[in-house]
Structure formats: C-alpha cells, structure tokens
Amino acid sequence: MNRRRLFLIILIVIVIVLVAAAVFFALFWKKPENINTNQNTNKPANANLVNVTTNINTNQAVNEETKTKASLATIAQSFAERYGSYSNQNNFANLLNLNDLMSDKLKAWSDKYIADEKAKNLDNSTYTGITTKAISYQSVNFQNDKSAEFLVNTQRVESSGTPTNVTKTYYQEITVKLIKENGNWKVDEAIWKEVK
Hints:
The protein has one domain: VirB8 protein (Nuclear Transport Factor 2, Chain: A, Roll). It has 4 helices and 5 strands, in the order ααβααββββ. Strands 1-2-3-4-5 form a 5-stranded antiparallel sheet, covered by helices on one side. The longest helix is centred in the N-terminal third of the chain and has 37 residues. The protein starts with a helix and ends with a strand.
C-alpha cells in the first residue's frame, strides 16, 4: 500500500511540474521577431541572433527614450505652473522653490532678478498675483542624454485686491528648455511667449 501511495504522489508531482512548465512557456516564451527564415548559406550561423539582439536593444532604447521624454514633459509642465504662479506678497517663493530644478545658469538669473526686484522697494500692500495652470505641451526638440525643449500651453489668471478677485484670464505659451547638468536634468531656460 505504501509503495502504491508513493508511486501516486510521485506521479502527481511529475504531472504538476509538467503543467507548470507548459503554463510558464505559454505565458513567457515568445517567438523572436524579425528572424529571416530563409536559409542563406553566405550568412554566419549567428547572424539572425545578432539581428534579434539588435532589435531588442533598439526597442529598449526607444522605450527608455519615450519614458525620459514623458518624464521631462512632466517636469516642464510642473515648472511652468510654479514659475508662472506668484504674487507680490510671496517674497519670490515661486522662484526660490524651483532652485533644485534650475541649472546653474538659470539659478544665477533667478538670484539676480530677485535682488533687483527687492532693491526697487515696491509697495506690496495691495495684493496682485497670477495663477498658472499647464494645459498641454508639445515636444519641440529632444536629444536623449543632452537636451530637451517643450512648448507648454498655459492658462493664467490674474488677481488683484485679494486672491479671489479675478481681473483677467488669458492663455500664454512658455518655452521650457532642459539640459543634462552633472548627470541630472535641469531647466536651463523658461521663456514666455507674447500673449495672443
């Protein structure tokens, strides 16, 4: 009786292993694409393997580039919103909070701009401000691991007196240029276009 039981258990284990292997291959094994099935005696034996490897590497590079571009587009839109939203009473917080995203060149411009504006001693007793929201973007230029440029379409709302006293709503585009600086992507330029 024990031998028969042992035989049954071994048989069940073998069947389970075979079913698991069949399921694994059915789910995860894919026929390599772009393999030329015509036998060409002039080709080396591994030529098709080289083509498949090249195609896989190309697809991976394209996927990485797509992910990088999408990530940079998100940064460009977020930067445009924060850069373009400010008030005369927030003490340049919109620029100071973006320092980590700025290149050295843009940080130097921001520091000079803040110093120049503070030197003017403007009357800030009456609130004025602008809230900016990114609506869409367009990729203008993209060089993987080097630079990227996006045109971000925004809606801007001016307020005066209090943050809820809307005086004007308009649409404005901003060009956001990013560069790779010290291994990290940074915004190097942010240029507002003329309001149409």
